Amino acid sequence: xxxxxxxxxxxxxxxxxxxxxxxxxxxxxxxxxxxxxxxxxxxxxxxxxxxxxxxxxxxxxxxxxxxxxxxxxxxxxxxxxxxxxxxxxxxxxxxxxxxxxxxxxxxxxxxxxxxxxxxxxxxxxxxxxxxxxxxxxxxxxxxxxxxxxxxxxxxxxxxxxxxxxxxxxxxxxxxxxxxxxxxxxxxxxxxxxxxxxxxxxxxxxxxxxxxxxxxxxxxxxxxxxxxxxxxxxxxxxxxxxxxxxxxxxxxxxxxxxxxxxxxxxxxxxxxxxxxxxxxxxxxxxxxxxxxxxxxxxxxxxxxxxxxxxxxxxxxxxxxxxxxxxxxxxxxxxxxxxxxxxxxxxxxxxxxxxxxxxxxxxxxxxxxxxxxxxxxxxxxxxxxxxxxxxxxxxxxxxx
Length: 398
Fold this sequence. Notes:
Helix content is 35%, strand content 21%. By secondary structure, it is an alpha/beta fold. The protein starts with a strand and ends in a 5-residue tail after the last strand.
């Protein structure tokens, strides 16, 4: 059950000192706290209070966290990594329920209170990944909001039977229909987009498509997604993840595309990648495109990186976009918090009365210092329940 709390001596979003009163798992008031009823009292020590961070793009079923160090040898191409992973899932014994639980506990310790996870569906593993992550969602339902994307990592049309498995995954309770590189992987852009949006229409669910395709190829696929979104009236229900093509230097091509995304209310997810062209966060935000972020793969067979820290991710976004002013770094944090909340359709998100009491206490004189330092979180509260202290989750991992 949610706790009633009085969190004193904190600075909401880096502002003036205040107290946050929590009743029944909701923020009841933000002020001096003098009229608070009897409740557990926590001294925040002047820390910055942030709303729970939002991990809007990760792959819980594939992390190797806690399995010992894996020496990475996957080839450079996307298809090399996909095929390498398919083999290693069997030889390494990656259990999706166990591994997703470990990453959730890690995320809690870093202050994330909501996660959108893409979970593999393909003809070799079937629905094992979906079943495992759904078991984890049930196990940790009181401390983490988890949304599942049925994700055809190996393609849909190139692997007959995958569309039927995706349909079953949606019927089982996945919340979002995933897709992947209509040209580069399935080599049938219209067919791929047809299948993704047909599943979305059948199940009444939103769409989140991985689009790694660069340059003009990616622009072509993006235009197909925009056209289909508008034709089916799915504005506000579509996310394009990675969207490397938006990092093209040709503004005569990209600026009209950004305007079309804004008009269609299609959101963009970026990780702030170091080695790929990246969507220009400030230009997109200024034109009204909703943006979110995530860790993507965390210490998986694709690479050794990742800590599940969305403050660190905000720093990566800032570095990738050459953000140096405090206001710009705060924008990067907003992408890792409110932007993800908007993409996930969270109605009670934020730091104001009536919102869910998902609260993170971060160290720093300012929000920007909290982002660039990303020190261990002093406290993490989920729905009024303390779930982490001093960088350590109070919830056990398997």
